[in-house]
């Protein structure tokens, strides 16, 4: 299970330190996703973000996969587990901008305020996670940690239940969620009914054998 980790202080790098780190980073890259340093000191590169969403997302598209419910031109559906998206960003892009860019790539209509970006680190056989503030810069974190995702990876999640800004949801979104919940509830009820019916049949069969005359 992930362990929450305190946010680490930001260490500012000089232009020369940035240049050296980028050279070191690029020499270690194995997937060709290198960083590029521009003359103005801003650098660009790639980050991969794993989508770990428990609730359905609302997409402005008629084409979607999985369990869905429709309202107007929007579709609410569950994103497949383990979905990873690669973004090309710059060192000036903030966490909030990265979240917005991810939602645009998926054509997600949900309010970006519903989501949070986490960094996940592995240390001493333990997995640590830390929610990033909106003003942090993911590409800087990627540069400092190096290209190995086992050292640092990014995860997009919804805010915890107690943090959800329900006023940020639109009426169609809430209606879609209710339809999906109703569908799932009915599916679970059918599963439970079948399970207990099977138990009942076995019990009645056993009782019939016990009370059988002779």
What do you see in this structure?
With 214 residues, the chain is of the alpha+beta class. It folds into two domains: 15-61 and 71-162, Ubiquitin-like (UB roll) (Roll), CATH 3.10.20.90; 169-209. The protein has helices at 15-28, 95-105, 138-145, 171-210, and strands at residues 3-4, 36-37, 43-51, 57-59, 68-71, 74-77, 83-90, 115-123, 126-131, 153-158. Strands 1, 2, 3, 7, 8, 9 and 10 form a seven-stranded mixed sheet that branches. Strands 4-6-5 form a three-stranded antiparallel sheet, with helices on one face. A hairpin with a 2-residue loop joins strand 5 (68-71) and strand 6. The longest helix is centred in the C-terminal third of the chain and has 40 residues, at 171-210.
Number of helices: 4
- Helicity, as a percent range: 25-40%
Total domain count: 2
Question: Number of DSSP strands?
Answer: 10
Outline the biggest β-sheet: 7 strands, mixed
**Overall pLDDT:** 81
CATH architect. name of the largest domain: Roll
**Order of helical and strand elements:** EHEEEEEEHEEHEH
Stretches where pLDDT is under 50 for at least 5 consecutive residues are 62-71
Our estimate of the beta-strand percent is 15-25%
CATH class (first level) name of the largest domain: Alpha Beta
**Oligomer state of the chains in this structure:** single chain
Radius of gyration from CA coordinates? 24 Å
Fourth-tier CATH superfamily name of the largest domain: Phosphatidylinositol 3-kinase Catalytic Subunit, Chain A, domain 1
Structural class call reads alpha+beta
Ends apart, CA distance between termini: 58 Å
Question: What global shape is seen?
Answer: elongated
CATH topology name of the largest domain, in short, is: Ubiquitin-like (UB roll)
